[in-house]
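User: Second chain of the day. Same drill as before.
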Amino acid sequence: MDYQLRVNLYVGRNIPPADETGTSDPFVLVRSYGQVTQSSICYTTINPGWYETLTLNVSLPEFKEDGVPSGMSLVVYDDDDGKRDLIGRSWVEFKPYFHYFKLTTGEHMGDIFEIIFGKPKWLNILYDATGDICGKILAGYALIKAEDADKIPIENLYPDCFKETLHLFCIGLRDIDTDNLKAKIASVAFDISGDDYDPIQTSKQKIAECGININKYLSIKIDIPRNRQLCTIIDIFVYEHSHSGEQKLLGVGTIEMSEFIDKYIFEVAKQANPNILTV
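Assistant: Same format as last time:
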């Protein structure tokens, strides 16, 4: 039977660094029944946000309990100046979970369509050679009968957000292993997952007694998704700088914002309703 396959690709988490900067330029290649398509490239990140729907026209056998499983592979690559380096892959089996979708707007408003729907799930990315987990991606799918595909609009996957100013105070670095460092000069860069802005980097500081004092206040305007699964992540990169201006990655860290956001949303709700109870 002929379907339009819609792959809803949301975000990736903990994608391994593939570049000297400590980041990757990840994209996803989707294959199903001989058809191939790919996502856009998210540059210089280890926690990409795609928020896009990929479409393929596929012909699938009839769904039977004892039939051959059908599905799709999602292969994650790092873009290396037009070349692609494999990061890992995941397999999604199509399940006959039928969903009845009613259009509420447009020319076909009120019409009901039967689709096969796979809810968004976190999928581990496995590296072929070792089977090691190399991060994860959040993705779902829908199979729509070919004759109905033009009638059902593609949804906007970008999450409902509230805009806030993120205030960061970077105090310094401690316990730096200086045995293999030459210039002993370091800096820190902060990058917000899923956005298109360049990382914010502190000034270079001389390492003294295995640490540096930065004492820098940073103010960043960000979109914060209300969906906890899509919550903002701050990537932190520490670099050593040579006297010639080159920088070398020393380490990578992350700050999960979900816990802080939960507290923030509760405080906002509490201000609106002082009688709210803490559970």
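Confidence is low (pLDDT under 50) at residues 275-279.

User: Great, on to the next one.
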